[in-house]
Amino acid sequence: MKTSAGVTYSAFTGWSDEPTDIATPFRGDIRCDVAVVGGGLAGMATALRLAERGVDVVLLESGYCGWGASSRNAGYLSNELAGEAEVLQFFYKNKLKNLTRFAENSAQFTEGLIERFDIDCDYEATGNIKAAISEAQLGRLRRNAEILQEAGSNIEFGDGAQLGLPSTFLGGIFVRGGGLMNPGRFTAGIRSALLASGARVFERTTVRSVEPNGARVTVEVPSGRVDAERVVLATNANTRELTIGPSGVGPVYTSVVETDPVDPEALEAIGWTTRAGIVTPHQILENYRRTPRGTLLYGTRRLRGAPSGPLGAQAPDPAVVDDLTRGFHQRFPTLNYLAPQRAWGGWIAMTSFLPVAGEVAKNVFYGVSCNGHGLAQSPYLGTLLADRLAGDDPHDDLQTLWRPRPPRLPSFVLSTPVFEAGWAVDRLTDRFGI
Ligand SMILES: Cc1cc2nc3c(=O)[nH]c(=O)nc-3n(C[C@H](O)[C@H](O)[C@H](O)COP(=O)(O)OP(=O)(O)OC[C@H]3O[C@@H](n4cnc5c(N)ncnc54)[C@H](O)[C@@H]3O)c2cc1C
């Protein structure tokens, strides 16, 4: 769909095309050792590892594997936790070192997958930068840098010129691990590895219910039933649609916008020499990156809560896209001739900032590693869960996240009015530099 402003709005990812080899939907009755519900990076990694370890695994996916957030995101492979370090330290002081290690290991693990399966996803190990637009933000980042260093993060604090940041940014935290990629291609690469494994994969198959049934678990789909010894819910933002899913996982819609191609000299002229991804420390972050297509991508800044009922495929709200573009022009006034070309987005799962995993009912496991950081964390978390189900002692990183259910966030916290209030606070702090 084209709007009058010439932006193409998509309810799909802007990074890759739909696969041409979609697996047949599931019909009938079967038994298996483990059924995985959801074929994003978390579910695919779980099923892939289980298949590699000789476990009889079935994966059921509503769309096709990678259809959800996994292929739609901004492509930041981050070795950090979501949330501001000062807040994390306040709530999770005793766990912060272990959580930091989980985040660091996640990025390294995911880089290992790219290498192992030789996935052509334009990955560049650039690291990422948290960059301040005001002295007040810079002060906060300096305090956060101390906490992160203490917790074991491999980071460096620098001014804008040292970090190769465009002139809008005063400086910030360079996070050495991770980098940038095309997540559509990465997800497609993991899907190919999964389809070539011994896992039985069914796409266009929506799971309606998951019910413990004596020593086993019954998974109902519209035209059949899977009788599994154990089930893994890897349903991300859709988790609330299964009544057995852990409460405390809420859906939030987030958007990205891609510009026309930019002349690299125009970037150099404003001092934008880093290839790292840039995020700001606003209440609701802004992100800016170069893409391998020679364009720029910017996103988030304004979020949308979910309506009640099932979440469908959804294109971004034009008001959000306009605001994102306004923000882009404010941060990069000399690039204001660059027109937004297309916009897409997707549903992410929010917990209270932390990735979480656990056993929500007898033999029913779940893993959620989102809060906008799942590109690195989902494949790692899925693999750790698989290793546990295959009989290993739980890995320390998995133990760190383990809870029967995530801490419950009051539902209003993830509503559009609350996000709009956060956005308004950000604009006030922008205006007064506080
Ligand atoms: C616009 C955007 C930008 C983002 N940017 C970044 C970023 O730069 N870096 C980063 O690390 N993270 C980012 N994220 C978050 C990241 O994409 C997610 O954390 C990650 O992909 C989650 O992986 P997942 O496998 O848990 O979920 P998903 O990829 O959402 O997969 C869940 C799957 O479960 C399926 N499913 C759900 N319910 C059912 C059911 N009942 N039956 C069958 N199938 C079902 C869905 O169809 C879906 O395919 C972003 C997300 C979005 C939307």
TrEMBL record:
Residue ranges of every copy of the Rhodanese domain listed in the record: 38-76
Organism: Tsukamurella pseudospumae
PROSITE patterns the record matches: RHODANESE_3 (PS50206)
Superkingdom, taxonomy of origin: Bacteria
Designated name of the protein: Oxidoreductase
Cellular compartments per GO CC: cytoplasm
Xref: InterPro entries: FAD-dep_OxRdtase, FAD/NAD-bd_sf, Rhodanese-like_dom
Alphabetized Gene3D superfamilies for the sequence: D-Amino Acid Oxidase, subunit A, domain 2, FAD/NAD(P)-binding domain
